Amino acid sequence: MSTVTTLGVTGMTCANCVAHVTKDVEAVAGVENVSVELRVGEESEVTVFSDEPLDEAALREAVDEAGYTVASYSVQEDALAAQYAEQAPEKQSAHDCACGCGTAEGDAPATKTYDLQVPPSA
Predict the structure, then answer these.
(1) Which residues, other chains included, contact 23 with Cβ-Cβ below 8 Å and sequence gap of 6+?
(2) How far apart are the first and last CA of the chain?
(3) Helix/strand/coil percent split, the chain, to 5
(4) Over the Cα atoms of the chain, what is R_g?
(5) What is the pTM of this model?
(6) Per-residue pLDDT tens for 43-101?
(7) 56-66 and 15-26 are packed helices; what angle lies between their axes, rounded to 10 degrees?
(8) pLDDT by residue (tens digit) across 22-59?
């Protein structure tokens, strides 16, 4: 299972802030990867990827240790399946065309023909 934990962190203003938070959060047991979207003057978004849900207190402590405050906290379990489900209609729509790979609603699949007498262009 994949889990995405999103922390809204206040007080971050520069790349050095991002480096400190990233380092301390990566040290929490179970963290696979950390991504930070710095938003100066607002809550920066710290996204933490893991296989299983993480200990909220440990994440909050890591951010606090770096010198910042967690203002918001959310967890999405089975995030990969949720992402696939969200993208499925777009992928199906892109696949539903008349090129022979799928069919658009009401259209028959196109047939591809190749004239073997015409040499390929260079």
Answers:
(1) 66
(2) 49
(3) 35, 25, 40
(4) 23
(5) 0.66
(6) 999 999 999 999 999 999 999 999 999 999 999 988 666 666 666 666 666 655 555 55
(7) 140
(8) 999 999 999 999 999 999 999 999 999 999 999 999 99
